[in-house]
Amino acid sequence: MKNADVRLITRILIFNVTLLVVGIGTFTLFHLQRERQHLFDVSRQHADVLLSTVERSIANAMCTGNTEEVQIVLELVGNSPHLRKVQIFHPDGRVLRSSRATEIGQPVDVRDLQLFRNGERDGIFVADNEEWLSIQSVIRSGSACIVCHEADEEVLGVLGLHVSLAETREQLRATTALFAGSTLIMVVVLVAGISWVLLRFVQRPLGQLAGLMTQVEQGDLAVRAKPLHNDEIGQLALGFNAMVDNLENARKQLQDYHFQQMEHADRLASVGEMATGVAHEIKNPLAGISAAIEVLSEAFDRDDERKSVVDEVLVQIARLNKTATDLLHFGRPGRPEFSHVDINDLVGRTLFFADQHPEAGNVERRKSLADALPPVWVDAKQIQQVLFNIVINALQAMEQGGTLHVATELHEQDGRQWVRIRVADSGPGIPPEAFEQIFTPFFTTKSQGTGLGLAICRRLLEEHRGRLFMESRPGQGAVFTIELPADPVGNNAKGGDDCGQT
Ligand code: ADP
């Protein structure tokens, strides 16, 4: 993360520097170009003034045909340190007069002749290792000229001079150096400023956040970011703090939940042990008492009033015995004896027994059994016990009458096949607040209930890798769904389950 934000800052810096260099560079080049143009224009103006001066100086001498004086003027002017030469050449390319007397009669420099022939007034060229501005003025024939020249000669000659550009070049060099220096300083100052801002306001807080994130990643949820500025990164730090707060709360809740679950499991384990012990202690004396009371009951005549009291005691002893048996089952369920079982068969047998139950009278019973269900590998007695308990609960929930619907089907989920038994009743249903509790041992809403039935069901299905679901809406009955894996022989031994309500 730290490397990542260093790379980000580097990228932003490179981008900024490039933009600055291109932007300021273009601006500087544009101004340099203008400055150069200006300096050359000034040189051209000076040369122009000089050329006019020479023109005027030789005008009289030319009118009077005094060529000697013309030569003297040219030589005088040509002595100036900034001038290379001053000359008059014939349009045919011959030098007529020149401040360099040796060039008189020689062919004029081709570049000067070219300027004239192209009709251009000035041009720049290099000679004697120096740069010169050549500027020309055409001498045309006038009325005074016919004394020495032919009447049809329109152009009598070309007056030209070579002005040195060394000073202009020097000024240009100084200006360029000044521009380049100031541009460089500007770029350096701007880059330094931007880097400082980026490092202080972006890289530092981001680096701090990245460090804290690593600490959180390693499990330290006590860390919090201190927002350095009230900007987007400050908001990010606050968001980070809120996120860590939430994480810490979630972890606390999870720990509490885990702790409760452990406590619950512990309690269940001890309850199971205690229940088994108590059930053992109760069952043997109960058997003795029951046998004794039966003997007593036989001693009374049929119409003896005391016989009905004794028989009622026998019923209560039978109920106590069932509770003790349930406790034993819950505390130490017997090892399942697996075999291939046809679930439709098992449903049929269970419903037959349930039909004998006193509460079955008012209830309409319906059965929808799926064809060709694969056999399941289960302990038939235990699964029948589960189904029987759920059916009896349903019947008891419909004391005032209703409909019991038992259905079987083959269900496929996550590439696995499950044989399903659904037991639906039209009783009062289960209130949402009891959803969690009904599978807890000893939770019962019945005066004669033990609250162990569904807890035992869940335990037995665990042994079969089966699942138990419950759906219910108050006033609309309850649906209990048992799912058993339709796996090949032996694969559904204990190892995990999903029992609960939806
Ligand atoms: P018991 O039947 O001894 O009460 P169970 O564990 O079998 O114990 O059931 C626990 C509780 O679940 C019942 O007391 C009842 O309140 C609720 N219950 C179970 N089945 C149904 C049902 N079909 N309709 C309404 N309530 C039910």
Descriptive report:
By secondary structure, the chain is an alpha+beta fold. The protein has 3 domains: 171 residues, PAS domain (Beta-Lactamase); 112 residues, Orthogonal Bundle (Helix Hairpins), CATH 1.10.287; 149 residues, Heat Shock Protein 90 (2-Layer Sandwich). Helices cover 54% and strands 18% of the residues. It has 9 helices and 13 strands. The strands form 3 sheets. The chain has a 6-stranded mixed beta sheet. A 5-stranded antiparallel beta sheet has the order 2-1-5-4-3, with helices on both faces. Strands 6-8 form a two-stranded antiparallel sheet. The protein is rod-shaped, with a radius of gyration of 58 Å. The C terminus is likely disordered. The protein binds adenosine-5'-diphosphate (ADP). The site of adenosine-5'-diphosphate has 20 residues, from α8 and α9.
Question: Summary?
Answer:
The chain is α+β, with helices and mostly antiparallel strands and 502 residues long. It has 3 domains: 2-172, PAS domain (Beta-Lactamase, 2-Layer Sandwich); 221-332, Helix Hairpins (Orthogonal Bundle), CATH 1.10.287; 337-485, Histidine kinase-like ATPase, C-terminal domain (Heat Shock Protein 90, 2-Layer Sandwich), CATH 3.30.565.10. The protein has 9 helices and 13 strands.
